[in-house]
Amino acid sequence: MTLTLEIIGITVLWFFLFGYVIVGSIDFGAGFFNAYSLLTNRQHILTKIIQRYLSPVWEVTNVFLVFFFVGIIGFFPKTAFYYGTTLLVPASIAIILLAIRGSYYAFETYGSRGHKGYSFMYGAAGLLIPASLSVVLTISEGGFIDMIDGQPVLDYSRLFLSPLTWSIVVLAIAATLYISAVFLTWYADKAKDPEATKLLRKYALIWALPTMITATGIIVELRAHNPEHYANILDVWWAFLISGLMFAGTVYLLWTKRYYGWAFLLLVGQFFVAFFAYGWSHRPYLLYPYLTIYDSFTNEAMAIALIIAFIAGLGLLLPSLYLLLRLFLFNKDYVAGKKEDNHA
Amino acid sequence: MGNEEAVFFSRLLTEMTLSFHIIYATIGVGVPLMIMLAQWVGIRKNDEHYILLARRWARGFVITVAVGVVTGTAIGLQLSLLWPNFMELAGQVIALPLFLETFAFFFEAIFLGIYLYTWDRFENQKKHLLLLVPVAVGAGMSAVFITIVNAFMNTPQGFDLVDGELVNISPLIAMLNPAMPTKVAHVVSTALMTSAFILAAIGAFRLLQGSNHIYHKKAVYLMVKVGLVFSIATALIGDFSGKYLAEYQPEKLAAAEWHFETAGNAPLILYGILDDGEVKYALEIPYALSILAHNDPTAEVIGLDQFPEDEIPPLYIHYFFDVMVTIGMFMVVLSAFYVVAKWRKWKLGNSRFILRLIVAGGPLSMIAIQAGWWMTEVGRQPWILRGIMRVDEAATSSGSVDIMVVAFALLYLILGVGSVVVLRRMFRNNPVEKELDKMEADRLAGETK
Ligand code: HDD
Ligand code: HEM
Ligand code: HEM
């Protein structure tokens, strides 16, 4: 297997999608836990922790998503034709949810404390967004799009009646909450807030199992839905095994209340390996059976220009991201809430 | 839904999203520079009024950025959702600046987060000010890159079209297209001009409401000065834009000017109405169109007679052009008058009448932005990629665009109202006077320690 421009392109994009899955999940899950704690009158435990982490980074989260969808049109312009035409409704729903959630976050945090209802809406949107975005993954498995008069058309009834769709939706939600809870456990621990740590650790343990069960279930369902992909997944079984071991490691550390930082790192590793193994086995299809990374690829001149731009951009971004993390995530005083009043 | 309907609703949705986004995007491009300016003046003069100005603007800015970001995300996705054929074709040539734009956002987003949460965290205030530089640069660059994409739609180049296939693609030549220099310059300078006048309008509004605080006076004076500079720049670059149009998109200029027959000594037609192909009640400035187009009062200007019927843009863009130019000229005169009046200490400068005009100047500038975009985008009709792809060939075949129009209209209504309400509440609950008193008290407490 040679390292072609196509592979470089999709790998870059997959990295950013992975980044979005992690930072987005933390963000979405946090909103849900916040709303849930309001409902159960435990808000005083969580709100501070959650806001201190989320406030400086919410806009950065969104850029990961923008980067992915702008990049995929850049590297693979034909995706605009297939996905653009068919995704109008699901993607618009996701945009609207993202818009309401993003803006109300800013309205609440910087503006003024509003109605409790917003917090609930905010929490609910945080679960609906991963659910609606995950539908794209389902569609990419094929079987839901027909070509009618040369135009791709999405068959909604087939999509909504398929068990695959719903398993992926459930996985998206469970994984969101699991990732978020593990991260926040670590963060709360660093903030020396034992009460919040305890609660979040409990949430993390609750959501661990559903994540694993649905993930496995999806692989089984693929056997009937997309045998070709299923066979490719079995080829990289060892990667999923590694991922599973890392999962066990996270749960073990959480269970024994130790090394929450390592627990989160293992979780990132677990999702990283699984995400890339999944992407690898999906290759070369962007959309079964119509679109592969090869026949949808842009011209060579553009591909090289994009890759050069990407490398140059990364040179700018990595130091800036490092600065952001150092100032807020790894700064003891900030995390512990000792430097509170620095907001404009 | 037939294709015609899909095209119609796709256009409607695109127009709506862009027109809404541009309000927040304009503020997003211009305001960081104004915050920087105020903070810099404050540090240099050791004047806490300017520092507080910067701080309060920054707070408000977060709200507008949030709406800018979410509507920008919407338009970014909608381009592929509504115009898949266009994106598939154009993406091969013009994806580079779109991709670069995301880096600009990234850069801006990271440093905005840092800037907002590090007030008073640095001993040396200048370090904090430096954090704004990447924010302003990032915002400016996103405007530059996206405008390059739009320039490409007007004068596509950097490829050859052979049997419907694009070959010999050169992303850099596509970016350096003839529409790019004037368009980018005009967009950036209008964003700065508009942001300055909006901030001036807010200060003038508070003065009119009865606050006589020097804080607001400083804000108004500073912003009108900045606005004057950029409104002059805008008018100059607008003149260059006219020359660009005359050379590369003569049909757009001719439609905007109701210039039907190719002729020399062409007059500029302002205002008026079109009655059965005849211009009535218009103001004619002799030779001015020839001057706008070629810097020569006798030069020949291409008229609409040179174009096939189905390639002539809608003639109503004339009104958009009038609105834009009128407002542009008005703002130059108004801000010049105010600055001179302040300088010569004329009484009229502080009169309620002038303050009212300054208050109007903010919204007026925003209207000029809208008029300018509508002129240039409608003036590109019927093309989406001039000379290469028509709008009706570009649109989606999906049947649900009409419902999406309704859904997004609701969304923008909520966002628009929400942002105004939140901004008002934010500043009303925390008036300047209170905050200045608090700053004073903090300082005294610090001195006695
Ligand atoms: C505050 C807003 C504002 C003001 C005061 C002006 N403009 Fe403008 N104009 C714009 C905001 C704008 C814009 C929104 O930024 C446009 C739309 C697209 C673009 O490139 O810039 C534009 C486009 C635009 C175009 C079309 C360019 C093209 O299609 O490529 C021309 C010829 C002018 N302008 C000319 C002028 C002149 C002669 C002005 C005299 C004062 C003027 N503008 C004031
Ligand atoms: C078709 C046109 C446009 C598209 C596709 C587009 C796309 C976007 C996207 C995706 C974002 C959100 C980025 C994020 O997540 O941070 C955004 C925000 C922004 N856009 Fe647009 N945009 C368009 C037009 C414009 C124009 C004309 C300008 C400037 C004159 C502009 C300036 C900005 C700025 C400064 C932001 C950052 C948010 C802010 O500071 O308000 N955009 N845009
Ligand atoms: C990336 C750059 C841009 C792209 C790809 C783009 C794309 C489009 C498309 C597809 C349409 C609908 C087709 C048509 O009616 O002509 C359109 C129209 C329009 N666009 Fe742009 N646009 C871009 C930049 C902008 C910007 C920055 C603005 C400013 C806000 C803008 C404002 C408009 C308006 C007002 C219309 C309505 C024109 C009409 O009625 O025909 N566009 N644009």
TrEMBL record, chain A:
Membrane topology listed for this record: Multi-pass membrane protein
InterPro entries reported in the protein's UniProt record: Cyt-d_oxidase_su2
Transmembrane segments: 12-36, 57-76, 82-100, 120-140, 160-184, 204-224, 236-255, 262-281, 301-325
Keyword Aminoacyl-tRNA synthetase: no
Localization per Swiss-Prot or TrEMBL: Cell membrane
Record-stated family: Belongs to the cytochrome ubiquinol oxidase subunit 2 family.
Name used for this protein in its record: Cytochrome d ubiquinol oxidase subunit II
Lineage, top ranks: Bacteria, Bacillati, Bacillota, Bacilli, Bacillales
From TrEMBL, chain B:
A Pfam family that the UniProt record links to this protein: Cyt_bd_oxida_I
The keyword Transport is annotated on this UniProt entry: yes
Membrane topology qualifier: Multi-pass membrane protein
Sequence intervals crossing the membrane: 20-41, 61-83, 89-117, 129-153, 184-208, 220-238, 316-341, 353-375, 403-423
Main location per the UniProt record: membrane
Superkingdom, taxonomy of origin: Bacteria
Location(s) in or outside the cell: Cell membrane
This protein's record includes keyword Cell membrane: yes
Keywords: Cell membrane, Electron transport, Heme, Iron, Membrane, Metal-binding, Transmembrane, Transmembrane helix, Transport
UniProt family annotation: Belongs to the cytochrome ubiquinol oxidase subunit 1 family.
PANTHER family in UniProt: CYTOCHROME BD MENAQUINOL OXIDASE SUBUNIT I-RELATED (PTHR30365:SF14), CYTOCHROME D UBIQUINOL OXIDASE (PTHR30365)
UniProt name for this protein: Cytochrome ubiquinol oxidase subunit I
UniProt organism field: Chryseomicrobium palamuruense
